[in-house]
Structure formats: structure tokens, C-alpha cells
Amino acid sequence: MISEVLFVYSIGQIAKLSNLSTHTIRAWERRYEVVEPVRSSGGTRRYTEEHLRRLQILKAAVEAGNRIGDIAALSDELIADMSGYSSPGMGSGRKHEDNAPELDQRALNEIIVAAVGLDSMALERALNVQYRVLGPTHFRSMLCPRLLTQIGILWERGDLPIAAEHLVSSVLKKLLLRAFDAHYPRACAPKVVFTTPDEEQHELGLLIAAGIAWDAGAEVINLGTQMPADAVAIAVEKVKPAAVALSSIHVSSGAQRAYLGRLRHMLDPQVEIWLGGSQAVQGVDGCHVLDLDQMVQRIEVWSGETG
After folding, report:
1. Long-range pairs for 183-186 at CB < 8 Å and ≥24 separation?
2. Residue 154: which residues within 8 A CB-CB, separation 6 or more?
3. Is the pLDDT of residue 265 over 50?
């Protein structure tokens, strides 16, 4: 049964969830044996929830100033104490926050079971419970990435019908949009336009990023998905944002580069272009690939300057 599935991740998926590069994970395995992945029948690395948690606490400890070679042989509990990392199941890769809620696999399994059964009422109920328990910020940053990754794994295995994936997306979208009704930004808040390139249909990543920017103090102008570069430029001229944030999941690197080149040419050089998402292309002049933490830091710097 789905509720009993031990989720197994590829190295790309574990890298995304742990906020470590695949190169770092392989290096830590080879030099320090920090985790021992299982191997598929074809010899491919596979990682469990336990591997994920260990990589997360190791990352937190290294960021706290510890050398990986000094801590690699220590227990999870000792490393967590050294780094201030939260208890198992938190899953965000961030250090402990006072009174921060936790997310465990049982809550995700309940959501997934409802989705597989196409039980929309149970799905909405389970997601609403987590929205209330975690709050909008942790719902976006903790639950959504983990849930979407596991939904993707089940779909790739053939254990999840496409209708279930669409149902989850529909319910998540309603909850992610709800957060924008909670408050209004300060009058001097930095403006950030959110959209996707014209070939990108995926909206959930865009909504997650926009919501996190909102929480960080930005005034979010969400144009939705599949916006042509010239239409974005017209909107930017009208609202005068500090940055344009683009989410890219399914667009080829060539198409991204062409789109970004057109957009950069049409925008004022003072307007920053941010690109995020699992397939964000690197190295385009005048554009910055940012993860969510880097985006928040940039917004907080601007908010401090204008506050």
C-alpha cells in the first residue's frame, strides 16, 4: 500500500531536497562515507528518508562552521546538537527555529493515499490540516517541495494516475493563493514580478516562490505562467519592480537562454532578472539563478534599505 511505501530518491532528488549539489553528496560519500546509498538493479544510487535527514543535518553543521571531515563519523543526534538542527521529519534543510512546526512522513502519506484514491474531500481536509498546523510559510517551504517530489516519484513508478497529480495540483493551488489574502505589503516594499517563460506551464513552483517572497516582505505582482518576453517588458514598464522572478521547470536550456536574452535586452539594466526552478539555466549575462533562501536574503536587504 502507498501508506507503507519507503520513499526512495535518486541522487538528483536527494540533492534538491537537501539543498546540496550532487557533486558534494558524491564527494562526501567517497571521502567520508557519510551515507551508504542502496543500489537499484541497474546499479543506480537510491536514497531513503534516513539518508535525507543525515545529509540535512550535516549541511546545517557545516554551515555552522564545522568541517565535514571532523563530524562525518558522529551520530545524527550529536551533529544535530552541534548545528542546532531540528528533529527528524522537518525536511527543509534549515537550522532549528524556536517553536518551528515539524512535518513527518505520516502526514504526507495521508495526503498521498487520498490523492491516489481520488478522494478530493479527504485530500482537501488533509492539506488544510497541514496548512493550519504548519502555517502558510512552513506549508510552502516544508510540505510543498517534499510532497511534490514524492508525487513525482510515484508517478514515474506508475503508482500514481495522472488524474491524482492534477487533483493535488488543483488543491495546492487554492491553498497557495490563499496566503496572499492574509495581509498587505508595506507601502515601501520592494516590488517583484513573478511569471514563467512562454513555454513553461508549471505553476506550483511559481506560486511557492511568490508566496515565500511575499512572506519576506516583497510586494508580489504575479502575472501567472507562459508570458511572452515583450508582455513582461510592458508590465515591468508599468509597475516599475526591482526584479522579475522567473520559474523554469520544463523549458530547454536553449529556449531559456533565448527568452532571457530577449527579456534582458528590453528591460532597464537596473531591473534584476532572477531565475529559479530545477532546470534554471546558468551563465546568462545580466540574470541571476537564485534558490529560495538567496531570494529571501535579497528581498530582506532591499526591505532594510527602504524600511
Report:
1. 185/214, 185/217, 185/218, 185/219, 185/220, 186/217, 186/303, 186/307
2. 2, 5, 112, 116, 160
3. yes
Domains of the chain: 1-96 (1.10.1660.10), 101-182 (1.10.1240.10), 183-306 (3.40.50.280)
Helix, strand, coil content of the chain in percent (nearest 5): 55, 10, 35
Contact 49, 7 (CB under 8 A): yes
Find how far residue 101's CA is from the centre of its chain: 18
Q: Report the chain's terminal Cα–Cα distance, integer Å.
A: 52
Predicted confidence at residue 242, as pLDDT, reads 96
Rounded-to-integer distance, Cα 307 and Cα 305, Å: 6
Distance separating alpha carbons of residues 28 and 105, to the nearest angstrom: 26
Q: Give residue for cell 498521498.
A: 112
Q: Would you state the cell numbers that stand for residue 238, as one nine-digit string?
A: 508599468
**C-alpha cell, 43:** 546499479
Please tell me the least confidently modeled range out of 28-37, 225-234, 298-307. 298-307
The whole model's pTM is what? Answer: 0.71
Amino acid at 186: R
> Is 244 strand, coil or helix?
strand
| 210 to 169, 176, 204, 299: CA distances (angstroms) | 16, 9, 10, 12
Q: Is 193 helix (H, G, I), strand (E, B) or coil?
A: strand
Helix (H) or strand (E) holding 287: strand 287-289
* HSE toward the beta carbon, residue 4, CA cutoff 13 A: 1
What's the grid cell of residue 255?
529556449
CA–CA gap between residue 222 and residue 60 (Å, rounded): 32
